[in-house]
Amino acid sequence: MTSPKPSARPEIPQAIRGTQDIIGAAAESFGFVVATFERLRRLYRFGRVEMPVFEKTPVFARSLGETTDVVSKEMYSFDDRGGESLTLRPEFTAGLARAYLTNGWQQFAPLRLATHGPLFRYERPQKGRYRQFHQLDAEVIGSGEPETDVEMLCLADHLLHELGIADGVTLQLNTLGDAVSREAWRHALIGYFRDHRASLSEDSQDRLERNPLRILDSKDPRDQPFTAAAPRIDDFLSAEAQDFFGCVTQGLAAAGVAWTRAPGLVRGLDYYRHTAFEFVTDRLGAQGTVLGGGRYDGLIAALGGPPTPAVGWAAGIERLAMLVTESGAQFAPRLDVAVVAESIGEETKASALVAYLRRAGLTCEAFVSGSPRKRYDRALKANPALAISFDVRHETGGRTMRFLKPEALDRLRVQTLLDGWDCPVSA
Predict the structure, then answer these.
(1) Would you kindly state where each structural domain of the chain is located, as residue ranges?
(2) Given Cys at both, which of 214, 218, 365, 371 links 223, Cβ 3.0 to 4.6 Å?
(3) pTM to 2 decimals?
(4) Beta-carbon count within 10 A of 61 CB
(5) Are strands 364-367 and 337-341 parallel, antiparallel or unpaired?
(6) Mean pLDDT highest for which of 104-118, 221-235, 255-269, 409-423?
(7) The domain 337-419: what is its CATH number?
(8) How many helices (H) and strands (E) does the chain have?
(9) What is the pLDDT of residue 63?
(10) Helix 24-43 vs helix 317-326: angle between axes, to the nearest 10 degrees?
(11) Binning pLDDT at 50, 70 and 90, where does residue 287 land?
């Protein structure tokens, strides 16, 4: 009788294109970015908020605009078992605005919120951009003062400095004016671009009547000669809009935040008002924006709520982490104490000491596996500040200590801890 053929080895699953598995130095930089953001949002008294990772599709379609590339080409939308269209969140702001309305958070206005987590867009993966990516997000809903814009920009600038990546990053700033200013500018842009319609790119021709501001942001070489000479918002600013922008720039000067005017920096959707900004660098290639945002006073009303001022920004964690890594920062976890069982039978005692020292706030690792002869050598390679060995061969018949980095630990505190340790393991 013939033996059965061995079953074929199952195919190893592959990662989905546009996603990534993060480990090592990249993961440490990622964690450093998040931890720094969390520390600063508490310093600035922004409350932590957690949001659903998916929403009803109209939340994003209405807030991002039905005709934008994000809505028409990039959103991950699907019908659930009840036949309702849901979408994985492509950004945070729309979900926060929805929560503000549906949960009655108006009673807490002005509401200062911060969050971070994964977002999803179906686009061509490239350096610093993935189909599942992560962002930091900070928002103030219910405050219409220019001082709030200044505070948001100070928070962003502070974050970049705390991450050690502010050098070579420039704050680009513009104003979109109030509703009256913006509408006057929009009509002037339509008239101007109509005169050059035949020479514009196909995308810009399509945007001309619906969203002419987006033409100003076009990267198509065919549009560049015309965007450079297009009407500027400054020619249409109302006195109130000029005063608002003046207060923002004066506040930044007082706070010591450097900026440069970027008249071509726009937001295409009608609910954006006044301040628009981006922090940009040339260290990430074409994807140079590391943090961006602005004032969106018309969004809450666009979602069916009352007129509500708001301002916010978001930053890609992957891009920030790339800059942190490129800066040469090191985040290898330090090792305060290595505890080694150099004799068979001492493993449990070594592990018990590690648990005790960890509860006291020291980073520890037990070396209790493999050959007893090699455990101590492995411990030294881990570069601890202190090595403690349990070895019945020693004259003491117990533990010995060796401070390898005398300056790295409070020796008196460590000695006091060890003197006070009541070993729960019988000798």
Answers:
(1) 24-178+238-326, 337-419
(2) 218
(3) 0.87
(4) 20
(5) parallel
(6) 104-118
(7) 3.40.50.800
(8) 14, 15
(9) 66
(10) 110
(11) low
